[in-house]
Specification:
By secondary structure, the protein is mainly beta.
């Protein structure tokens, strides 16, 4: 059983799994197709990814086009500030972003639907991020939106993040060709 909370961006959801804990530890169901489908989340995933990063690393803002990729994101070690940016041109929230702290401690997940760019910044010594994808990764469709584009105005909780060369060269929002 999961609880789903809507965000200010249509389609982006906070997923709160039910956690059963006692002196031995805890158990939680991280995905259930019936509950996910009832909540409007994708229920078919074809790829699982695991990313480990050090404190201060910022990854993103990534998306695929034209074969969009939805993601169900969770953190199994450490903490990140996770961000989704709406890049659906016909959306009422086009160009807006939503961010949420995901951690091994709070056990929250974020559903990032197709049509969004996604990224995260690592707030702990290390962070292990696991995410399910609705389509397979296709290198020829890999795209990046500039993480610090002032037209989007994401309020990242990091000063001077560590960024890959690819992410430094991301497209500006006003130059997106979708």
């Amino acid at each position: 059983m999961i609880e789903i909370e809507n965000t200010k961006l249509d389609g982006v959801k906070i997923v709160k799994p039910r956690v059963f804990g006692d002196e031995r530890g805890f158990f939680m169901e991280t995905f259930n197709a019936r509950d996910a489908g009832d909540a409007g989340l994708a229920v078919s995933y074809v790829q699982d990814n695991h990313s480990q990063s050090s404190r201060g690393v910022l990854r993103g803002l990534h998306y695929q086009y034209p074969q969009w990729q939805g993601k169900l994101v969770r953190v199994v070690g450490g903490e990140v500030f996770d961000v989704a940016v709406d890049i659906r041109k016909d959306s009422e929230t086009y160009g807006r972003w939503f961010g949420l702290n995901l951690s091994a401690e709070n056990k929250l997940q974020m559903y990032v639907p197709e049509g969004f760019a996604h990224g995260f910044a690592v707030l702990s010594a290390t962070a292990d991020v696991i995410y399910k994808c609705t389509t397979l990764y296709e290198p020829s469709q890999d795209r990046c939106l500039l993480w610090n584009d002032p037209d989007i105005g994401i309020e990242w909780p990091l000063q001077n993040p560590i960024i890959s060369e690819k992410d430094k060269k991301g497209s500006k929002f006003r130059d997106l060709d979708l």
